[in-house]
Amino acid sequence: MDTKIRIPRHSMIHVLLVIGAILMILPFFWMLLTSFKSVTESTSMNPFVFFPTQWRWGNYIEVLRQNNFPRLYWNTFAMVVLRVICSIVFSAMAAYAFARLKFPGRGFFFGLVLFQMMVPTQIFIIPQYLMVDSLGMRNTIFALLFPGLVSAFGTFLLRQFFMGLPKELEEAAKLDGCNIGQTFLRIMLPLVRSGMVALGIFTALFAFKDLMWPMIVNTNSDAATLSSALAKIQGAYSVDYPELMAASVLAIIPMLILYIIFQKQFIEGVATSGGKL
Amino acid sequence: MSKVVSRRISRQTWSEWSWGWFLIAPTMIGLIVLNIIPIIQTAYLSFFKSGDFGRGNIFVGLDNYRKMFDDVQVWHAVGNTLLYAVLVVPISIALSLIVAVLLNGEIRGKSLYRTIYFIPMVAAPAAVTMVWRWLYNEHFGLINYVLSRIGINAVDWVGNPKVSLISIAIIGIWSVIGYNMVLLLAGLQEIPKDFYEASEIDGASKLRQFFVITLPLLSPTLFFVVVTSVIQAMQVFDVIYMMIDVTSPAYEHTVSLVYLFYNNSFKYSNKGYGSAIVILLLAIIMVITFLQVRGQKKWVNYM
């Protein structure tokens, strides 16, 4: 009797989960389908057109012709990679010191790290913009990197990982004659690799999705990122949804491919960093 | 007497100190320049008014704050932001909790489901909002088409001030379910299986198990998800910016504090007023977070 109840219950769960899954990917599916339609097809209500009658690449060609997508990819890529490198390198250094070394000012400085994490990021934006502006660095890759040069979140996250490592490791390294720098680089750093991967994924994801900062600081269309360029493209086309959808597909595809390849790292990265906070 | 010893110890201590300072230097210099000074600067700017053509600051004392409390739009924005948070946070957490609990058992295709539910999280909000706008389109949108097939009249999801905030909240919920689900699922997996086995022997139903075992033991994770979701929701900008133009009839009913901050600081170049708005946002977030931390004793169980 028990099994009789169990089988339908499990299939009910699957029905629910499948409905949810469809709702999750339907917008992407619709984005893709619309990007291949003509304007007439996309606005035909009677009959309603679900699938394009033929797979037209015209919308993509038009969007690529009118916007410098290679440039947008490069700007976004450069910003993401530089932010990932900076946040991992600087955060790992500071995190190790906060987790394992004793020095005057440690409590105070770590307090600043915590304080930064509690403040909404918009509060930094005007002064950061004024700094970039006075350096004459607007519309550059550096401007895109600027707010992500260091990461309080990363410092906090990696500190949690370092604190989870056994103290004996360092004592052994010390006996072997390693100084603090060698212990950090050769012994401790390789052991927090999963933390660094999680931080890298987090940083990349949020840098890629950020809209306000690139919109403010890089107003030239050649200096935009994929996100900020989309905001401009929407204003320019407004009604031509097939072309807007083609542009959206082009903008989300790099991160989507990365996600599909590294899905395990993405999800584990989010799960472990959430648990560590 | 122990001069040699004390000097050796102090040299070692000194080495640890200097390593410590050296290692934290880049992060701390960065944080001070990029974050700590800007907080002070934003607070300072909120007492100034940008001169004409954006140049030259005029000290106006508390005028920006006075203006803010008389500004209907600021109150609209506070209301909209809070309403958005009230819609998105409970619904998204409830749905992600359901999905997480369903996935926590011995379900086939678990990792496939997890992968799919997380997808909205990896797409840029700018692109996501564009396709939702298209789905919401009054005349040609898929949603209204489906509704028309079941006999419901077309809804102006984006332009109608009465529904536009709900439409925006739906996008917000849809985007964040996967993220919360992954965090909650990690929390669920920490709960020892023995608890369930023991209560099964006692004859507890699944529903009872959920309320007696799952919820209390998940409460620390749940608390973390609630606090971060509220902070995130209070900072909503991207979706509203991409969906509602300043000229839209729904603008007043959807503009959030951050959107208002953006418009005042960068569109109308009144950085002083923009700063005052963002200080207000900071104050609201601080108060809400403080209340949540105070309130956690009532429902969060740390083992």
User: At the fourth CATH level, what is the homologous superfamily of the largest domain in chain A?
Assistant: MetI-like
CATH topology of the largest domain in chain B: MetI-like fold
- Assess the beta-strand content of chain A as a share of residues: under 5%
Determine Rg of chain B (CA atoms, Å).
25 Å
In DSSP terms, counting alpha (H) and pi (I) runs of 4 or more, how many helices of chain A? 15
**What series of H and E elements makes up the topology of chain B?**
HEEHHHHHHHHHHHH
> In angstroms, what separates the terminal alpha carbons of chain A?
45 Å
Number of strands of chain A: 0
As for the number of domains of chain A, it is 2
Q: Please tally the β strands of chain B and state the result.
A: 2
The mean pLDDT of chain A is: 91
| Topology-level CATH name of the largest domain in chain A | MetI-like fold
Low-confidence stretches of chain B: none
Continuous helix count of chain B: 13
Lateral arrangement of strands in the main beta sheet of chain B: 1-2
Helix content of chain A: over 70%
What would you call the structural class of chain B?
A: mainly alpha
Tell me the distance between the termini of chain B: 52 Å
Can you tell me the CATH architecture of the largest domain in chain B?
Orthogonal Bundle
- Taking pLDDT < 50 over at least 5 consecutive residues as the criterion, the unreliable ranges of chain A are 1-5
CATH class of the largest domain in chain B: Mainly Alpha
Family (chain B): Belongs to the binding-protein-dependent transport system permease family.
InterPro entries (chain B): ABC_transporter_permease, MetI-like, MetI-like_sf
Main location (chain B): membrane
Keywords (chain B): Cell membrane, Membrane, Transmembrane, Transmembrane helix, Transport
